[in-house]
Amino acid sequence: MGKFYVISVLIAAYILSVSGNIRRIRSIDLSATHSLVSETKLPGEVIPNNYTLDLRPNVDEATFNGNIVIIITFQEPTNKVVLHASHTLDVAENEIKLIDIGIDSNLDPDRKFVNNKDIEIRRIDKIMKKSLLEIYLKDTVKQGTVARLEISFNGKIYENSEGIFKGSYIDGLDKKFYVATSMRPNNARRLFPCFDEPASKAPFLVSISRPRGYITLFNTPMSSSEAIDENFILDHFQITPPMSTFAFGFLISQLTVVEKTDYLQDPHIKNVCIKVYARSELHADLINTRIHERIEKTFLAIRTYFGEDYPLTKLDIVALPNYSTVKPADNWGLILYKESELNQNTYYLIAQELAYQWVGALISPYWWTDFHINKAITGFIAANTALNLDNGSEFDGKWPMTILYSIYYEFSKRYPHSRITGMKQETICSKTELVLRMFNYTMGVETFRKGLQKLFINRKYKTFFTEDVWTLLTEQVHRDNKLDGRDSINAIATSWVQKERLPAVTVTRNYEKRTATLSQKLFLRERPHDVPEQEKMLWWIPVIIVKEDKLDFDDFEPMKWMKKERQVEVSNMPAADKFIIMNPEEIGPFPVNYDERNWNMIANFLQTEKRLLIPINTRAKLLHDAWNLAYAGSLSFATALNMTLFMKNEREHIVWNPVFTMMDHIGKHIDDIQAVHQKFNVYVAQLLIPLYEELTKTEENEERWMKNLRTLSKTFLCRAGYRPCIEEAQKEFKKWMEMENPEEGNPVANQFICPVFRYGTMEEWEFGLKRVMNFPSERRQSERTYLLKTLAGCPNQNEKILRLLNITILEGNENFTENDIFLIFSMLSGNSVGYSTLFKFLEQNWDAIKIKFTNKTNLWDSLISTSCGIFTTQRGYDMVSKLYIAKQGEFGSAEHIIEKSLKNIKEEAKWSKENLPIIENWLDLYFKNSGNSYKDKFVM
Q1: I need a surface site. Which of 54, 642, 901, 925 has the fewest CB within 10 A?
Q2: Is the pLDDT higher at 699 or at 564?
C-alpha cells in the first residue's frame, strides 16, 4: 500500500476542492427512509477525503482480505474516529494506524508533510448491532488536522446478492464462478471499513486481484496490471471521481463482451466506451434484441435530457447469470442486470439504471430521507425516455395509469400502509414521481427540464436535499414566468409529498352565470369516513379545464391554482349544453367529481363517435373517477353506470383496464345479494361480449396488451357464466377425466378449471378433489396449490364447499395440512357462496370445531375472520350478530375479531342499503329498454 501513499495525499486536495463543504442541515423527513437503513448517523467530526484500497478476493475459498488507507479530515476537535464496519468483517484492530500527515483544512500545497507522526490510539470498540468501528484516541485532535488511517481486514464471500457475493453458472459444458458486489443501500461496510453514508463522497484508488483467466470490471477502466504469482493478477484501476460508497462496485468473472453489430455516430457515444458482457450462450439472444442499440439510444436520450455529459469514460452493462435480486446493482460505470431483464426488447429498465448514473451517482441525495426524490426523478426520466423511444407500447398503459390507480386505492383507505412498510415507501416514491409529472405538464416541458438541469450545475459530485429540487424548479418557473412570483414549487410540492393522502375535487357548475365552484376535500373510498383532522388537509391543485366547445388536450397551463383553498370559483365556462373536463390526462393525482348534469353530458358524448376526440388516458380517467367516487359514496351509482354505456364500443385496452378492477370491487360488494349480482354480471358481460368476439382471432406477433385483454375478458365471462366459455371448459376438462392415469399430469389449461368447478357437475368437482388428495409428491406442488384454490374459491354451489369443509375440518383427512385449511379459508372469502356457507358450517358445527381448534388459535382466528367478517348487508349483520349473542364469551382469541367484524358489516350494510336499490333499478331499466340482454347465453 505504500506506493499509493503520495497519490492518496495529493488527491485529498482534489476531493475537498471539488466537493466543497458538506452541509449538515437536516432535510424534510418524509418517512421514506429505506427500510434497511438505520437512522443512526455518524458523528460528523471526521470526514473522508479519499480511499486507497487493495482487495484480494479468493473465488475458490469464498473469502477476501484487504488493506485500506483513508485520508481523513477532522472537521471538529475530537478524540474519536467513528466509521462503519460490518460485524461480518474481521478487522485487524491491533494493526490499525492513524498518522497525522500535517495538511491543514485549506490543503495548502506548501504545507504538505509537516508532521507525519503517529496519533496514539487508546482503544478500539466494535459496535456489532450498529456496524460501527470506534477508534478512541489518547489525545484530542485539533480541528483541521488531516490524517492517514490504515486498516487491514478480511471477510467471507456469501451467496445472498448483497455486499460481496459469489455466483455460478453453466456455460457450455463448464461450470463457472464469479464474484460481484451490490452496495446499495449500505453494504459497502461489509467489504471494507468506510464512511458508509451517501453524503460522504470521496475518490477511490483501487487495486483488485483476480485469478488468471478471469477479468475484473470496476467503476473505472483498468490502468495497469501486475502478476502476483503464477495464479493471480493484480489490476490497478483509474481513480474514481468523488462518489458515495453505495456507488462502489466490481465484478470478477469469465463473462465475455457481446459483439457490437451496430453503431451510433453521436460524439457523446464515441467519448464513452460502452460494453455489454454476458455468458457466451446468451450473446445471440442479446444481439437479436438489439441490446447495443437500445442502450445507446437510451444513453443519448438521458444525456440530452440532463444536458450533462456522462462523467466517466466507460460504462459496462452485464447480464449476470443466476442473479437473484429485486433490482439491478447500479454501481457507477458498472450495472449488473439479471439475464432476463437485459434480454427483454424494452427500454424502461435500461433507462432507469442509466438515469441513476447521473441522479444518484454524479449527484446524490444527502441522506436516506431524500432518496424518495432521487427514485422519483429517475423513475420519471426513465418513463419519459421509454415513452419517447417506443411510443408507449412498452407500458401498455401502465404508466402513469396503473401506478396512479394503486396509490388512489392505498391513500383512500382509513389507515394507509397499516401493515406493510415497504409498500409505504414505494407508494410515496410513486406519488412523488406523479407530482414531478404534474410539474412537467403545468410548468412546461422545457422549463421543468431546465430546472432539473440546474441540479447538476449546483451539485455536481456533491449531494442534494429534496428542497434543493423544489427551490431550483421555483427559480426556473419564476424566470420563465410560469408561476406567480409570490408562489413557490416548494409550497406546492410540500402540500403533496408530506401527506399520505390525496384530494378529490368537486366541480359544481352554475349554468346560467357560466361559472363553476371548485371544492377540495380528502378522498376516501373506505368507510367510515372518520379520518381525524381531515378538514385541515388541503393541497395546491392546478385548475386545468378542457371545454367541449374547444377540446384542446395540448394546453396544460393552469388557469389558476387552488392555493390550499377549500373552495374557489372560476368563470368563462362554456354554454349550458357543453360539458367540461377538469384535470385531463391525470395531470395531477386526484379524481374529479361533477354535478349530475355535467356527468350526463360527458356520458352522452362518449356514446358517440366523437368520443375519440377525448384522449385514451382521459377516457380512462373519467370512467375510473366515476366508479371510485360512486364507491366512496360521493356520486350516484346511476350516474356511474351511465358512464359505462360507451364501453360496448370502446376497444382501447387502457380504457378497459380499470373496468376489470371495478367489476371485481363492485361485484364482491353486491355478491351478497345474488339477484342484483347476476344482473350486474350479465350487464357487464353484455359490454364485454362484442369485445371478446373481436379478440377471438389471434394474430402472429400480436401485441401483449391484446393477449392480456383477451385473457381478462374471457376470465370475467367465464366467471359470469357465459355458456360458450363453460362448454369449452367442460370439453377440455373431460380430456383429463378420460385419461388412463390422471395422476400423471394435468392436460387442462388453468383458465378452464375454475369455470368447471363453478358451474360444472358434482362429478367434475369430485374428480378435482381426488386429484388433490392423491397428488403425487414428485410433481410440482404449485399445481396442487392451484387446484385446491379453485376447488375452494370457484364453486357456486354450497354442497361442494360443505363437502370440502367436512373432509378437511370435521374428518381431519390426513391429505390436508393446516396450511391447506388456511388456504381454503382465504379462498372462501372471495365470494358470498363461500363465506356464507362457511358461516353456516361454523354455526351448525360450533362445538365440534371448537374442540378441533382448541390448540390452533391461528386457524380459529382465521375461521372467524372469514366466516363472520365479509358480509355487506343487513341480513348478514343480523346473522353474525345472532351468532355473537348466542356464543358470547366462547370466541376466545377471536373475540376482538368478531367485534370488529360487526362494526365493519354495519358500515357496509349502510352502503348496501343506500346503493343496491339504485344499482338494481338502473339495471332493470336498462334491460327493459335494451331488449336483448344475452341472458339466454348465461348459466344463472
Answers
A1: 925
A2: 564
